[in-house]
Amino acid sequence: MMGVMVSALLRNLLPAALVLVVRSLINTVSAALNEGDQLISTILPILLLGLAVSIVEVLSRNLSIYYNERLRDEFDVGISSSILQHAARLDLAFFEDPRFQDIMARARQNTAGHFSRFITQIIEAAANTVQIISLAAILIFIEPFITLILFLFGLPYMLVHWRIAKLRYNTEYSRTTQRRWSSYYLSQLLNRNTVPEIRLLNLAPLFIRRFRSLMATFRDQNRHLHKRGLAARSLFSLLSTAAFYGAFTWVSYRTLKGALTIGDVVVFAAVAVRLPKTIEAVIISVTNALEHALYISNLKEFLAIEPKIVDGTGQPPSENRGAIEIRKVSFAYPGSTRRVLTKVDLTIQAGETLALVGENGAGKSSLVKLIARFYDPDEGSILFDGTDLRDFPVEDLHSNVSFVFQNFGRFEATVSENIAFGNWQEMLDDHEQLERIARLTGLHEIASSLPQGYDTFLGRQFGEYTLSEGQWQRLAIARALARDTSLLILDEPTSSLDARTEYNLFSHFKKMAAGRTTILISHRFSTVSIADQIAVMDDGQIIEKGTHQELMELSGHYASLYALHQRKLAMTTPDKR
Fold first, then answer.
1. Do the first three CATH levels of 2-303 and 407-484 match, i.e. the same topology?
2. Which end of the chain has fewer surrounding CB within 10 Å, N or C?
């Protein structure tokens, strides 16, 4: 910061010094000619002084560029890290809210660049003001009234520029959602996961047309702003040029009358050319700084958002066993009035495996998200080993939960890293543990078949190798098992696995989940059968609970779903007769 300030100040003080050197040189040459003195030694000291000033000015300009670049890099690291750290604290609900997406998009809109440019523009404006004062002082010495004319034109120009800057910011602010749409169309057209379906459905012309329509709207809005800026700049340039040439005529007249020297005329000409540009530079710097400040307010808006899921003030249990008790829990997603859970009561004993069964939309995934405390219930409470989840420090609770999500992560990393991410603080370099988990989940054979084994980089975004959907799902299960937790939640953990792989995986399930309380969501009844208890959900409520045999004897909703599943299997199983 200090380097930026010093170099900018030095760079803007030197033009006045250079003008004075030129004035001295011309007056000395003129006097020497009048006296018949033709010795170079008369003007050599002044020439050397001018050379020194010019060299320092060039070096200060280069130093200014260097320090500005360093400042921008520092802000880029600091502010980008702050955005990521704050985002890591926020609730899942924020990321599912389109209004928050707009706020986050605005905060990410090159905020570090805006912040560094705000600082540099303020420093530049201050330094240019010093240059204006030094140059104006020379003009006042020659002709005092010139300065008054100067500022009469400068103030309206600044007000017009500020109005245009505010209009430019407001326009960009209003575009946020459309900007996200344009990014969406770009990602869909360029993403390897979506390109095949887009090609097949010939959606590219439609998406490109919508993208072009958005970009054309932006272009037309920008054109209007550019025209206003052009008009303001042109008017200021015309008026200031005319004013200074009028003043120059007056100075020339006074010189002819003997009131001023030839050096004064040359100095006035040099200052008259430079000063309007410097004033314009100050005005642009100030208005740009104010505009960048508006963009910085977007970052402040983002950083002002506080998570609603906060650490509890109570003490978590000294021993985590994984017992879950759900008491009269009701819940609706933020922004919605429709309840997805209503008065849910459920008890899961420590070490027990419970399967949640029900049709799509019954509330199964919502319930396990509450248990993992991605959300808090609107009514009721959830207890973990007898303690309300809201009394836990959030990080402590999450360190005791392993979760295989429906939309599991496909991380661009090596096989071993993809497994170790489940407990990266301890397992990134523990190859023995990684291989043990890989063998339990059937990943060892897959890793061994890859070119670099466990060190093979997965993902097509940066690497050359990827896995099938089912193999990625096995990696997600392995990642969950890498965590030493008392609660394991599996949300459709085998949806991408074939029947044989699923059977092999869950034949080892008791060993994999030994000692953990497990909540399993699945539509496959072959998977559900391993559970100690089965809870059946419908329309946000638990309507049946028991073992597989007990529920079949009940002949209720579960038995109906099971019969439907069996008929589907019969239809898809080839007749071997």
1. no
2. C
Phi, psi (degrees; rounded to nearest 5) at 314: -85, 180
Distance (Å, whole) CA 343 – CA 470: 36
Distance CA 356, CA 521 (A): 5
Contact in structure between 118 and 292 (CB atoms under 8 Å): yes
Quick one: which of 424, 370, 379 has its CA closest to 397? 370
Question: Which of 278, 298, 275, 297 is closest to 286 using CA atoms?
Answer: 278
**Strand arrangement of the beta sheet that strand 324-331 belongs to:** 341-348, 324-331, 379-384, 387-388
Measured between alpha carbons, how far is residue 217 from residues 64, 181, 226 in Å?
37, 13, 14
Stated pTM of the model: 0.70
Distance CA 164, CA 48 (A): 45
2-303: what CATH class? mainly alpha
Read off the pLDDT of residues 379-402 as tens digits, 9 standing for 90 and up: 999 999 888 998 888 888 888 898
Q: What is the pLDDT of residues 187-228, one digit of tens each?
A: 888 877 788 778 777 888 898 999 999 999 999 988 988 888
Each domain of the chain, given as residue ranges in start order, spans 2-303, 321-400+487-499+520-577, 407-484
Q: Are strands 487-491 and 517-521 parallel, antiparallel or unpaired?
A: parallel
Q: CB count, 10 Å around CB of 386?
A: 9
Give the C-alpha distances (Å, rounded to integers) separating 523 from 356, 493, 536: 9, 10, 11
In whole angstroms, give the CA distance from residue 559 to residue 403. Answer: 28
The two beta strands, 487-491 and 401-404, are parallel
Read off the tokens for 277.
Answer: 């540009």
CATH superfamily, region 321-400+487-499+520-577: P-loop containing nucleotide triphosphate hydrolases (3.40.50.300)
- One-letter amino acid at 218 equals F
Asked if 210 contacts 178 with a C-beta cutoff of 8 angstroms, the reply is no
Name the architecture of domain 407-484: 3-Layer(aba) Sandwich (3.40)
Place of tokens 């003043």: 247
Taking the CA atoms of residue 346, residue 347, residue 351 and residue 354 in that order, the dihedral angle to the nearest 10 degrees is -30
